[in-house]
Specification:
The protein is globular. It has two domains: 43 residues, no CATH class; 210 residues, no CATH class. The chain starts with a helix and ends with a helix. It has eleven helices and no strands. By secondary structure, it is mostly helical. The longest helix is centred in the last third of the chain and has 42 residues.
Length: 261
């Protein structure tokens, strides 16, 4: 009788937290699939609220890696390896989106051209220049920090919170695709869940500095999304990835400023 009475609770947990989190984890990282079936549209939408939680998990992995590497390696080498693993664990998903966004937003004459370029797998000059600059700034920020444990936790969390904000708050630019499913099935509930996770993590990890970084991330997300919308009919998955990458860099720079002020 006790097991039967708990079954509805277990199913409710799976539908409201467990499966959406696993969907977010599978979508945003190279973690092996733990759910051996396609996710429903509702589950994909609910996953948007758990994007920052994936960032927390990613940050904890990077914090542990950095703690181990700093014992045997100098700081600049540790920073480079941490950044490399950071990219690998995400499957370079967001970095690829950033590269495509650089080419798409700056390389097309019309909105249709830009959407086409965003789908193009070839890398152009804007992507190369933007990618090199992005990675250099990320590495320099990590190498400049005497202790960047908090940055490694807060940056991935707020970067994925920025994606949640972009998905929910702004129109999507294509009629089909995974991004369309995320947009159509994520709403106020997912926004609240993502925001609570992000702000609690930033506040506990970095106090006022983390909350200040969160405010800057929200403002930057709005600016980036509005700029993209000035050149496209709506956001795309690549734009979400670019927003994640750029807001992660912003958080790292905020922590650098805070550590030297």
């Amino acid at each position: 009788m006790e097991r039967k009475s708990r079954e509805p609770e277990i199913r409710n947990w799976n539908s409201s937290i467990g499966i959406p989190f696993l969907a977010a984890l599978q979508f945003l990282t190279i973690a092996p699939p733990l759910i051996r079936r396609p996710f429903t549209m509702t589950e994909l939408g609910a996953a948007v609220g758990h994007f920052p939680l994936v960032g927390v998990l990613l940050g904890l992995v990077l914090v542990g890696l950095r703690a181990g590497l700093r014992i045997i390696l100098p700081g600049n080498v540790t920073a480079a390896l941490v950044l490399a693993v950071w990219i690998i664990l995400t499957g370079a998903l967001h970095l690829d989106g950033f590269l495509d966004t650089c080419d798409g937003l700056f390389g097309g004459a019309t909105a249709e051209d830009r959407l086409r370029i965003l789908r193009d797998e070839q890398v152009g000059a804007f992507a190369v220049a933007g990618g090199v600059a992005l990675l250099l700034v990320k590495y320099a920020a990590l190498a400049a920090l005497p202790d960047y444990t908090l940055a490694l936790l807060v940056a991935p969390t707020l970067g994925r919170w920025a994606m949640s904000l972009a998905v929910i708050a702004f129109p999507y630019g294509r009629s089909q695709g995974l991004g369309r499913a995320l947009k159509d099935h994520a709403g106020r509930r997912e926004l609240i869940v993502a925001t609570v996770i992000a702000l609690i993590t930033a506040g506990i990890a970095s106090g006022w500095l983390g909350l200040a970084a969160a405010a800057l991330v929200a403002a930057t997300t709005w600016v980036l999304a509005r700029f993209a919308l000035s050149r496209l009919p709506g956001l795309t998955g690549d734009i979400y990835g670019a927003i994640c990458e750029l807001t992660e860099v912003l958080v790292l720079l905020v922590v650098v400023v805070g550590s030297y002020s």
